[in-house]
Amino acid sequence: MLQTILSIAGKPGLYKLVSRAKNSLIVEALDETHKRQPAFATDRVTSLADIAMFTESEDMPLGQVLAKVRDHEGSKKASVNWRKASAKELTEYFATVLPDYDRDRVHNSDIKKLLQWYDILIDNGITEFEKDLAPTDGDNVDDRQEEE
Prior knowledge:
Layout: E1 5-8, E2 15-20, E3 24-29, E4 36-40, E5 45-47, E6 52-53, E7 60-61, H1 62-73, H2 87-97, H3 108-123, H4 129-132
Antiparallel strand pairs: 1-2, 1-5, 2-3, 3-4, 6-7
C-alpha cells in the first residue's frame, strides 16, 4: 500500500497522512503513541517522497538513499548510533552507504536526520522505500494511489 510519510518542521519524528480536513491534514505519528493530530497550512509539511540527497552527479531521491541504507544494514536498524556518533563516524558510515554523496552540501545534521528517519520507518515496518516513497507527478495527494 502506498503511504504518504510526512515530516513537519518543528515537530519531532515522522507522520503518516491519514485524511484531509477542511483547513488541515490529519496526520498520525509514526511512534509508539500513534497519536493523530491536525497539520495546518502554516506548518511546513514535507513529504519524504519530495526530498532528495545531493550527490556528485544528480540528486538521489530519499527513497533510494533509504533503500541503500536498508541494503547495507540488512533491513535492521542503523548500526551507527546517530545520537552519539561523532562527525567522523557519521561521514565514514555514510560514505560506505552512498560513496558519491556531495560532502560539501550534505551536512552531519542531514545524515543524523536520515538515520533517525530510517530507524522510525524500520520500527514501523515500512521497508519498501522505493515503492512507498516514490515521487509523484503533480502536487495532489490523490496522485499517490496504487495503480490497479
